[in-house]
Amino acid sequence: MDDTCQTVLNTGLRGVTIASTKISDVNGAEGKLVYRGYLAKDLAGNTSFEEVVYLLLFEKLPDRDQLKAFQQQIAEQREVPEQIIAAMQAMPKDALPMDVLQAAVPMLAAYDPDIRDTSIEGAGRMAVRLTAKFATIVAAWDRIRNGKAPIAPDPELSQAANFLYMLNGEVPDDELAGFFDACLVLHAEHSFNASTFAAREVASTKAHMYAAVAAGVGSLSGPLHGGANTRVMQMLLEIGDVDKVDDYVANILDTGGVIMGLGHAVYQVDDPRAHILAPMSQALGKRAGDTRWYDLSKALEVKGKAAFKERKGKDIFVNVDFYSASLYYYMGIAVDLFTPIFAISRIAGWTAHVIEEQYGGAAAKPALYRPESDYIGDYCGPDECAFVPLDKR
Ligand SMILES: CC(=O)SCCNC(=O)CCNC(=O)[C@H](O)C(C)(C)COP(=O)(O)OP(=O)(O)OC[C@H]1O[C@@H](n2cnc3c(N)ncnc32)[C@H](O)[C@@H]1OP(=O)(O)O
Ligand SMILES: O=C([O-])CC(=O)C(=O)O
């Protein structure tokens, strides 16, 4: 390894700043999340997902006319080529939804008329297409795997309401659509999280947007990242009852496991998004006349935090995936769709970051991410091993 390199071995790059960005800021100490200067908590519930996509892509909030035109642009791009739907119909019905979504990304690239256009305008059009179509793919897959025909998108509906409509065949009421919209707003962007970093790393090679986004989807699927929301719900279902929380927590910590939805690589306080998601989960529980999953989440938060502190002598906090789980469950969404739902929102952040990576961020950086590694493998004594042909080994 080059002596001039800063050594941050096996730290997962925690605390290492690798590039500047104008897109978002995560203040881990204060628990603040800012999208292009605006607090995400001020945007959720007060703006639509489409407004936030516009903000992330075009660096400012739209005025009324700009928003109307942008909503129309998104609505016009929601249809997915029938060949891709046919390919999905040919897939095994038990395929993982994140695999299906990831597989659809290069297929979408094959149908994108701008795929050879390297201009920033072309990238912007690709970003809009991907954002519009992700929701259609996720909803279509859920229907296909359940033996139902996909529902065509309704251009009159918002991205949030249209997703729920394409999933269930029913237009959601305002409260449900509003809550789902707020979820999309809250999941849209989070600086250099693992999946965005993966997307930016691919974009740094000058590969096209779809190649970068496919990497982002793969990274988001992991249980330590976006995949945690599905695992949180599986954990709640496994516990099943508030009375069993103590035993569950003790057992998981005794066996070196992790409580899904707790802990974060950056936040040293509660994730600010959890404070908005939790009351929405509680409200939907009340509306359903069954607050069990919210109550169980709350008990798990309290007891999990206390047990962690007792054992490790330090605090742990809830992250975005903790309360989104019960919230989506109350919406009647299949548990393994929670992470694809994260993706139908985070696509906005990924595409904004790909554009920033390729067409200019806040400051110049070398085009290609290429860190060093420390070789700790074998040599044959002081020298490299002498090669032995196959038939002499
Ligand atoms: C959208 C998102 O990506 S948000 C994150 C979603 N992921 C999860 O909810 C999965 C559960 N959480 C975790 O695994 C972790 O908290 C992470 C990966 C998210 C962040 O981890 P980091 O801050 O890097 O901490 P790290 O994994 O190094 O853990 C530090 C210590 O806390 C422990 N710890 C961290 N999170 C948890 C948890 N949820 N439950 C129990 N112990 C935990 C670790 O075991 C480790 O203990 P040790 O020091 O005795 O080895
Ligand atoms: O920032 C992270 O490490 C994970 C996260 O919360 C997100 O991607 O929303």
Automatic annotation (TrEMBL):
For this UniProt record, the keywords arranged alphabetically read as follows: Transferase, Tricarboxylic acid cycle
Molecular function in Gene Ontology = citrate synthase activity
Similarity comment text for this entry: Belongs to the citrate synthase family.
- Superkingdom to which the source organism belongs: Bacteria
UniProt pathway: Carbohydrate metabolism; tricarboxylic acid cycle; isocitrate from oxaloacetate: step 1/2
> One Pfam annotation, family name?
Citrate_synt
Show the catalytic activity: oxaloacetate + acetyl-CoA + H2O = citrate + CoA + H(+)
What GO terms in the biological process aspect are recorded for it?
carbohydrate metabolic process; tricarboxylic acid cycle
Protein name (database record): Citrate synthase
Which cellular components does GO assign to this protein?
cytoplasm
Instruction: Indicate the residues that form the catalytic site.
Output: H264, D321
